[in-house]
Amino acid sequence: MLKFAGVAVAALVLVGCATAPGGMKAGQFVSYQCTTGKGFQARYNPEAKSVRVRALHGAVELSQTAEGKFAGEDYMLDTTTQGGPTLMHKGKAEASGCTAS
């Protein structure tokens, strides 16, 4: 039983340390300030590999489409872009050059 408890604790520590993309935090909203003058908030969900975004046009849950890229309901978030994450809405950059604050 003690051996199992140690494995369970180790697994929880590893899950808690999972790297969130683009400066996000698992389970917590992070605010982004962007060079375009607009900002947004994002929260990473490591179990679902999704991101909840609060932005100018509302809130949306984005599903991971590739490493560091998320999309859904007219939005696309790319956390791999040079200069910081970029949030697109209906194919146009809404916020780019973003840094977590």
Helix-strand blueprint:
Elements: H1 2-16, E1 30-34, E2 39-45, E3 50-55, E4 58-66, E5 69-72, E6 75-78, E7 86-89, E8 92-95, E9 98-100
Antiparallel strand pairs: 1-2, 1-9, 2-3, 3-4, 4-5, 5-6, 6-7, 7-8
Within the largest sheet, what's the order of strands? 8-7-6-5-4-3-2-1-9
Q: Mind describing the biggest β-sheet?
A: 9 strands, antiparallel
**Helical proportion?**
10-25%
Amino-to-carboxy terminus distance: 43 Å
- The 3D shape can be described as globular
Report the order of strands and helices: HEEEEEEEEE
Give unreliable regions as ranges. Answer: 1-17
Q: Could you list some keywords that capture this structure?
A:
single chain, 101 residues, mainly beta, nine-stranded antiparallel sheet, 1 helix, 46% strand, disordered N terminus
Short description:
With 101 residues, the protein is mostly beta strands. The protein has one helix at 2-16, and strands at 30-34, 39-45, 50-55, 58-66, 69-72, 75-78, 86-89, 92-95, 98-100.
